[in-house]
Amino acid sequence: NTYVGHCTVSNSSTIHPAYGGGIFTRGNAALYGSTVAYSYANANGKNGSGGGICTLGNLKIEQGSDIHQNYAYTKTAFAKGGNAYSRGTATISSSYLGRGGAKSANSVAEGGGLFATSNATLTNSTVANNYAKGGLQGTGGGLFAYTDLSTTNSVLSGNAADTAGANAYVNGNLVARYSTFSDSHGNSGTQTPSGIQVNGASALISRSTISWNAGPGLGMEPIQPAGSELQVSLSTISGNAYGGLGLEGVATAKFYGSTIAFNRSSASGAGISLIPSANGMALTLQSTLISNN
Known about the structure:
Number of strands: 44
Helix content: under 10%
Distance between the termini: 51 Å
Structural class: mainly beta
Strand content: over 45%
Number of helices: 0
Shape: globular
């Protein structure tokens, strides 16, 4: 295991294939009050993972750590985790991951700020101004969680992707409490990626804000639609440029005490776009305002 406490790692790189420009460990890694910056995983034609940090175990970034301006790059393979890559769980607490990027010139890029193969947890943290740019597709500009994502009192803002989940791409379930997902955009002016993309069976959003994203504020398309559920409570979804929510194949959608307003769309469903599965969709609206969309 690797422990980094109150240290600075910067201006480092690794090449072809490239794993962990700043820090690489085959076990778990824990960073406390540390900075990792200006590092690169430049893989050329191989996979590139973790421009700043690459761990094959679990990753913890805590106590005011600052992980910024790290990049994973490749020409023809996968680029994952510009600032940080974890093959296990990723736990981010009271820290910042920003201005990093994952770029694949001719293939797939995922997780500009963070890529986690297992569950990702953010508490009192900021993931901002990262990007995922791929020749085929770029997803999870801020972070890519291959399983579940949980956020508490955190901000994901200003991140960019090509296709979906500019702030966060969640292949599993989402729990967001007291969190903000805002101001995400595409890597070009014509791209409209969703701010958050959820492919799991459950999304719980409470006392949170989803606003001013260039695509739909939230896109949810469960891989297994049967029994899937979205629940939004005491939250605001507003000012998104391609609709507030785009729900496809979601079995149950519930909204309590929430506001969905001032979203725009050139197609239909500027507030909420509902595309049910063959079994239909159960929709509940309670003490919820849908206005000026």
